[in-house]
Amino acid sequence: MKAITYDGPFHVRLRDKPFSRIEHPQDAILRVTAAGICGSDLHLLHGLVPDTRVGFTLGHEMVGVIEETGPECTGLKKGDRVLVPFQIFCGSCYYCQQGLTACCENTNPAGDLATGCYGYAHITGGYDGGQAEYVRIPFADVCAEKIPDDLSDLDALPLTDAMATGYQAAEMCGLQGDETVVVFGCGPVGLYAMRSAWLMGAGRVIAVDHVPYRLEFAKNWAGAEPLNFREVDVVSAIRSMTEDRGAHCTIDAVGCEAAGSPVQRALGIYGKLYGGSAQALNWCIHATRKGGTVSVVGVYGPPWTLLDFGTAMNKQLTIRTGQVSVKRYIPRLIDHIRAGRLQSESIFTHRLPLEEAPKAYRLFAQKKDGCIKVALFPRGEPTTIH
Amino acid sequence: MLPIDEIRGVDDVSRRPGHEGFRPVAPWPNARIPPASQPGRPSVPVRTRAGKPMTPVFGTSSPLRGVSGMIRRWAYTFPEHRARRWLLLILADRVEATGPRLRRLAPLAVPLLFATFAAFRPRARMGRVRVSMLHLPRDSGSRLATGR
């Protein structure tokens, strides 16, 4: 079967791999109909996440049709159209029972760092991803969610990660109404965080990035006030917009590849001396008012980060973090999609066949051609750009 | 998509799924307690979870192999809170990446190697006394250029 695999830093490769097979009684095999490229795939591509192995299949955002089920996978049958949250979880452990499926302790033999994830570094369990024709889905009838008939594949695809992550980022701000929220990063997660902040009653949403077309998209699509950190001192600008106090809440939707600090990039990204550049997170700490909240959904690699934590402590900030437990958000987000409050399809600026994934990764990583988000189609259905 | 004015404040705290008490503490539908165990070997070393049983499911993609596999196996003997675990894993990644890097360079590097070898003609030089090795690259270059 065709699969997009990691081929060393800055390279992906289309390979022929053996077909996915049932390895556990609750497994299912998914025939992938659409797969997304996520910003955290770029952290792998750029060699920032330890134990990223050559030859593994990338991709943790996918929807498709069940092709085969294991003997104990009774909740699904062949032909069901499903979306698959990016984490793998058992549904029965201590954490899963509390709704924290992103913390499941039964799917990642590599340690307690995170639960098992599709198409990520082997520190999350060593599972192949969904940028392929087929993929194995462990605990399929627990994890996967049937897609309602009135939702298209592209409606459902961001539910697997980006939309749920953005929603949780806003939720972690604990908004009560009329707060100022600053979102660092105008990628798909940041954009969904902006709209979610409005859903939760924010009074003002400010978007920070340095890519002009993304700032324009944030302004038009998410109703945010754009701020280009290449043009202004971003922390001073935010303070001057908020009575010189700073925002009530800030959201880091950037993670370990933040621009804006040559030192952070030299040491954390190019030198690989620590888990990426923490510039966005440092800006969050400085741009939040005392007693405010910093919500972190950007991904940082182990082992450590060059973070100004003393300032966070002295400002009495609340820092909330975490991978989103996707499963518990799906019903509410489907409500929002149906009501037209959140939209999925319009965020996919590029729709390409699987074979063109190397080009898609290049466009997405270099932020060219107005690229916001890419959908890949293993069956090669749509072939148009924009 | 609805304009911002029409969506603002729709999700009060009680409608947010991450809100405490939104969902009762209970297993998810179709969950088995305890889950069945997957046969076979995981692609990450089991010893990394010292003191804990093996997880019921695991990934089998890209098993450990070669020098990078040896380094990874060693790395996983250290717990997560030790930096050496992560630094060794990063080292293993770089070691493994040399293979694809050499493969990508091969179309350029192999012809260059042959050309250089041909230019030097080492067999033709056997037994001769070379006064200055410094001139060797320059002579080879001129041989390539003139074809003699």
SSE blueprint:
The complex is a heterodimer of chains A (386) and B (148).
Chain A (H helix, E strand, L loop, with lengths): L1 E5 L5 E5 L11 E10 L1 H7 L15 E9 L11 E4 L2 E2 L5 H4 L18 E2 L16 E4 L2 H4 L1 E2 L6 H4 L5 H10 L8 E5 L3 H12 L4 E6 L2 H11 L2 E4 L5 H8 L5 E6 L9 H9 L8 H9 E9 L12 H6 L3 E4 L4 H14 L10 E4 L3 H10 L7 E4 L9
Parallel strand pairs in A: 10-11, 10-13, 11-12, 13-14, 14-15, 16-17
Antiparallel strand pairs in A: 1-2, 3-4, 3-8, 3-17, 4-5, 5-9, 6-7
Chain B lengths: L3 H4 L58 H10 L7 H38 L1 H4 L10 H11 L2
Notable characteristics:
heterodimer, A: 386 residues, alpha/beta, Quinone Oxidoreductase, Chain A, domain 1, Rossmann fold, 2 domains, seven-stranded mixed beta sheet, six-stranded parallel beta sheet, 13 helices, 28% helix, B: 148 residues, mainly alpha, 5 helices, 0% strand
Question: What does this molecule look like?
Answer:
The complex is a heterodimer of chains A (386) and B (148). With 386 residues, chain A is of the alpha/beta class. Chain A folds into 2 domains: 213 residues, Quinone Oxidoreductase, Chain A, domain 1 (Alpha-Beta Complex), CATH 3.90.180.10; 160 residues, Rossmann fold, CATH 3.40.50.720. Helices cover 28% and strands 22% of the residues of chain A. In chain A, the strands form 4 sheets. In chain A, strands 3, 4, 5, 8, 9, 16 and 17 form a 7-stranded mixed beta sheet that branches. In chain A, α6 links the parallel β10 and β11. In chain A, α5 crosses α6. Chain A is globular, with a radius of gyration of 20 Å. The relative contact order of chain A is 0.15. By secondary structure, chain B is mostly helical. Chain B has a domain of 55 residues. Helices cover 45% and strands 0% of the residues of chain B. In chain B, α2 runs antiparallel to α3 and α3 packs across α5. At the A-B interface, α6 and α12 of A face α1 and α3 of B.
